[in-house]
Amino acid sequence: MDGTVFDIKEFAINDGPGVRITVFLKGCPLRCKWCHNPEGLSCAPQRNLRTGRMVGERWTDDDLCAYLLKFRRAYDISGGGVTFSGGEATMQHEFLLSCSERLRGHGVNVNLDTCGYCDEAVFRSVLRHVDLCYYDVKCMDSELHRDMTGVGNELILENLKVLAGSGVRYHVRVPLVPRVSDTVENRLATERFVKGLPRQPESIDWLPFNCLAPAKYAVYGMKYQFAE
């Protein structure tokens, strides 16, 4: 089995506990206007117009796991592991499941960084093979969510309930996007929703807005939609 990876970040310290390697899988069902990984949106490889390099490399599950397991000593010493991100990692759920199951079989901690927009059955199957989940909630107003990301938030909130009902450790993460999520109304609505979940997250992480994204769009021939 193989999958498309657009980046691998070694010795990451902000993508879960300890020292980690973050694997960015290509493809995302959302189109957030402020997305800071535009090269991860499409499932297909893309050419970087500045460097000429194709972004999006095919890996087999055998090769990727063999590479990630080379760092087991660093994981063990630091309490770290591997984080699967994107794009949206569940877009390649079969590849994700195969890699996660193998890594955990070798005692490696696996974190899923997800927007939560996927079929519930797929999400439940993925949760059985991860130790931790970083779960993004963009904003609580569904119409605003649809305008800013291309989809409503109903499925995302339902899958958050599924996550809270599982035994998987999790954090709710909210990117503080100007005039979208960084408002008093949205913060209070998020906190109310989280308090009503069957199991509380380890934290709600309010993430600073990333102002560096616009420069990345031009090199992939894309337009930044949140320029205003």
Using brief descriptors, characterize the structure shown.
228 residues, alpha/beta, TIM Barrel, 8-stranded mixed sheet, two-stranded antiparallel ribbon, 8 helices, 10 strands
Description:
The chain is an alpha/beta fold and 228 residues long. It has 8 helices and 10 strands. It has helices at residues 61-69, 72-78, 93-105, 120-127, 142-149, 154-165, 184-195, 214-218, and strands at 2-12, 20-25, 46-47, 54-55, 57-60, 81-86, 109-114, 132-136, 169-175, 204-207. The strands form 2 sheets. Strands 5-1-2-6-7-8-9-10 form an 8-stranded mixed β-sheet. Strands 3-4 form a two-stranded antiparallel sheet. Strand 3 (46-47) and strand 4 form a beta hairpin. The radius of gyration is 17 Å and the shape is globular.
Structural class, please? alpha/beta
Separate helix tally: 8
Overall structural domain count: 1
Corresponding CATH superfamily: Aldolase class I
Low-confidence stretches: none
Could you outline the blueprint of secondary structure elements for this entry?
Blueprint: E1 2-12, E2 20-25, E3 46-47, E4 54-55, E5 57-60, H1 61-69, H2 72-78, E6 81-86, H3 93-105, E7 109-114, H4 120-127, E8 132-136, H5 142-149, H6 154-165, E9 169-175, H7 184-195, E10 204-207, H8 214-218
Parallel strand pairs: 2-6, 6-7, 7-8, 8-9, 9-10
Antiparallel strand pairs: 1-2, 1-5, 3-4
